[in-house]
Amino acid sequence: MSITAERKTALIGEFAVGDNDSGSPQVQIAVLTERINSLTQHMRSHRHDFASRRGLLQMVSKRNRLLRYLQRKNRPAYLELISKLGLRK
Questions:
Q1: Under DSSP, is residue 1 helix (H, G, I), strand (E, B) or coil?
Q2: Sign (positive/negative) of CA torsion 61, 39, 50, 47?
Q3: What is the pLDDT of residues 15-38, one digit of tens each?
Q4: Dihedral (Cα; 58, 39, 83, 31), 10-degree rounding
Q5: What burial class does residue 2 get, using C-beta atoms within 10 Å of its C-beta: 0-12 exposed, 13-18 middle, 19+ buried?
Q6: Coil, helix or strand for 4?
Q7: DSSP assignment letter at 9
Q8: Measured between alpha carbons, how far is 49 from 86 in angstroms, rounded to an integer?
Q9: From residue 88, how far is each of 8, 22, 67, 84 by CA, in Å?
Q10: What are the respective helix, strand and coil percentages of the chain, to the nearest 5?
Q11: pLDDT tens by residue, 61-70
Q12: DSSP assignment letter at 23
């Protein structure tokens, strides 16, 4: 259900804005998207896992808030990020 440390490090390296960047909105959104995709697969086979469903909804809401923030602050970075991640916005 969660992502591996290697995968998270790869995502940070791919979406980082600077050298020591691990907290920018781009990185946070990329990591959340990976976790959401993983949990979505889990939910397809475990339909009655309501605790995981709640966590999934919280992650989706947090990602939406971060996307709105990035859209307000840096529109070109927002457009590039959603095209890289394949998000429909």
A1: coil
A2: positive
A3: 998 888 879 999 999 999 999 999
A4: 70
A5: exposed
A6: coil
A7: H
A8: 27
A9: 22, 24, 11, 11
A10: 75, 0, 25
A11: 999 999 999 9
A12: S
Burial (CB count <10 Å: 0-12, 13-18, 19+), residue 81: buried
Tell me if the pTM is above 0.70. Answer: yes
33: tokens are 């998207």
Q: Which amino acid is at 47?
A: R
According to DSSP, residue 84 is labeled: H
CATH classification of 5-85, choosing from 1.20.1250.20, 1.10.287.10, 3.30.1330.60, 2.60.120.620?
1.10.287.10
Q: Which two tokens stand for residue 16?
A: 């980082």
Domain boundary assignment for the chain: 5-85
